[in-house]
Amino acid sequence: MQVDQASRILAQMYHEALPKEKALSVHLFAIKYADQIRNISAKDIVVGAGLPEPYKTEIRKGINLAKYVEVKD
Q1: CA–CA separation, 19 vs 7, rounded Å?
Q2: What CA–CA distance (Å, rounded) separates 66 from 60?
Q3: Contact yes or no for 33/71 (Cβ under 8 A)
Q4: Which of 27, 30, 36, 47 is the most exposed place for a label (fewest CB within 10 A)?
Q5: What is the C-alpha to C-alpha distance for residues 19 and 69, in angstroms, rounded to an integer?
Q6: Range(s) of the domain holding residue 43
Q7: Looking at the domain assignment, is residue 60 inside a domain?
Q8: If you ran DSSP here, which 8-state letter would residue 8 be given?
Q9: Dist. CA 19–CA 60, nearest whole Å
Q10: Average pLDDT for consecutive 10-residue bins of the chain (73 residues)?
């Protein structure tokens, strides 16, 4: 996955999330796509998605959580 594709997916998930679940959507993005984004700069993804830069920390948290959780449908 390239930075621009990851940014588009993140932006979509973020903007479709309920107002109180915005940060949760960032974690979920990182958990779902951890294997594809692990070697991409979290800052580049967040900036490309048009989100505040501090969300890069939330992406790293989600990537780290990915080995312990699985996404339910």
Answers
A1: 19
A2: 10
A3: no
A4: 36
A5: 24
A6: 3-65
A7: yes
A8: H
A9: 22
A10: 96 96 95 96 97 96 94 81
Residue 17 DSSP label? S
**How many folded domains does the chain comprise?**
1
- Token pair listed for 59: 């992406």
Question: pTM, whole model, 2 decimals?
Answer: 0.92
Residues 29, 62 contacting (CB under 8 angstroms): yes
On whether residue 72 sits in a domain, the answer given is: no
Cα separations in angstroms, 23 against 2, 30, 58: 22, 11, 7
Q: Is residue 71 part of a domain?
A: no
User: End-to-end alpha-carbon separation of the chain, Å?
Assistant: 22
CB-CB contact of 45 with 37 (8 Å): yes
* Confidence at residue 70, expressed as pLDDT on a 0 to 100 scale: 86
Could you tell me which residues come within 8 angstroms of residue 15 by beta carbon, excluding any fewer than 6 positions away?
none
